[in-house]
């Protein structure tokens, strides 16, 4: 495709995906729509740029109180929907941490659920720590033949079953996979979200639209520098978005150089000296390894040679890890 674009640039005209504020605010979130209209007028309905005029009211206590009240009503509505469809009771005063999208490895629901497991184990290790109660909400569908995606869905359900039944953790966190994700369900979940998880591997997401819907409904975005997350960051400002991870260029660099680094690390000259080697031999081997390491490609972020893969050593499991 880049080659064709170089030959006939006039035939290519990229357009970023968009979403309609009429559906995703006016219809899905009438409380927020009313607040916007009363505050800045109704021009935002056809030109969303006018919604930026609410910035001057951001520090107004009355505006803040009404915004929070609208968000809580939306969370109560979602909690009722989830209770009806899953039997799981959610606390509307907890932080709603939301990841709703097609289930795919590059969208990294697996990374998110591993974080949930980490938080659960941390609560069991340190039950005395004060934490903001959090509700982890997943939803989405996989392709019928996508085995890995179905396993991720099964894992989320299994983690939810353990966490929600644990008397120590369940007052501080809940996990739910809301079934049958669809537009009408999204219109209930998105207005209730406090935190929007947009953590696709950088360079894999063409644009994304769920991130836009969640952002325009007042959810803070936590995401990689990928797709429309970059444009959301430009619109809201860096202090108002949480970014992490590699950039697309850094991901591309690791993919291109990873094979070379792995083969160098596994070569005899780059291996660590054995305990039976003489001091002179150890020095020679160490020098050779250092030379091999210094010849590896340099990471664009750190300007340092790529690190050799570390061997995985087994660790002793604690009681709750065995039980889990």
Question: How are the secondary structure elements laid out?
Answer:
Layout: H1 2-7, H2 21-27, H3 30-40, H4 61-86, E1 95-100, H5 109-125, E2 134-139, H6 147-165, E3 173-177, H7 183-189, E4 195-198, H8 210-216, E5 220-223, H9 228-236, E6 242-243, H10 248-265, H11 279-294, H12 319-323
Parallel strand pairs: 1-2, 1-4, 2-3, 4-5, 5-6
Describe this structure in words.
With 324 residues, the chain is of the alpha/beta class. Helix content is 46%, strand content 8%. The chain contains 12 helices and 6 strands. It has a 6-stranded parallel β-sheet with strand order 3-2-1-4-5-6, sandwiched between helices. Strand 2, helix 6 and strand 3 form a beta-alpha-beta unit. Helix 5 runs parallel beside helix 6. The radius of gyration is 24 Å and the shape is globular. The C terminus is likely disordered.
């Amino acid at each position: 495709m880049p080659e064709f674009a170089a030959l006939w640039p006039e035939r290519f005209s990229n357009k970023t995906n968009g979403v309609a504020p009429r559906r995703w605010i006016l219809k899905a979130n009438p409380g927020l729509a009313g607040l916007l209209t009363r505050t800045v007028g109704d021009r935002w309905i056809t030109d969303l740029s006018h919604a930026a005029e609410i910035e001057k009211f951001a520090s107004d206590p009355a505006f803040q109180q009404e915004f929070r009240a609208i968000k809580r009503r939306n969370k109560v509505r979602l909690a009722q929907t989830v209770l009806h469809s899953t039997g799981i009771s959610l606390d509307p005063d907890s932080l709603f941490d939301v990841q709703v999208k097609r289930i795919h490895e590059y969208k990294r629901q697996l990374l998110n659920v591993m974080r949930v497991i980490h938080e659960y184990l941390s609560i069991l290790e340190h039950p005395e720590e004060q934490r903001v109660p959090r509700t982890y909400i997943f939803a989405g569908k996989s392709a019928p033949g996508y085995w890995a995606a179905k396993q991720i869905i099964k894992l989320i359900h299994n983690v939810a079953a353990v966490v929600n039944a644990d008397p120590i953790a369940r007052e501080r966190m809940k996990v739910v996979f809301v079934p049958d994700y669809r537009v009408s369900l999204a219109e209930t979940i998105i207005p209730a979200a406090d935190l929007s998880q947009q953590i696709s591997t950088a360079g894999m997401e063409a644009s994304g639209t769920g991130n836009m819907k969640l952002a325009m409904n007042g959810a803070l975005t936590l995401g990689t520098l990928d797709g429309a997350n970059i444009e959301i960051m430009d619109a809201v400002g860096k202090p108002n978005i949480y970014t992490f991870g590699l950039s697309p260029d850094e991901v591309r660099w690791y993919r291109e150089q990873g094979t070379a680094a792995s083969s160098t690390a596994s070569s005899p000259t780059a291996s660590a000296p054995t305990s039976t080697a003489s001091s002179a031999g150890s020095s020679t081997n160490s020098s050779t390894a250092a030379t091999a390491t210094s010849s590896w490609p340099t990471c664009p972020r750190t300007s340092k040679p790529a690190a050799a893969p570390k061997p995985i050593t087994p660790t002793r499991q604690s009681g709750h890890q065995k039980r889990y």
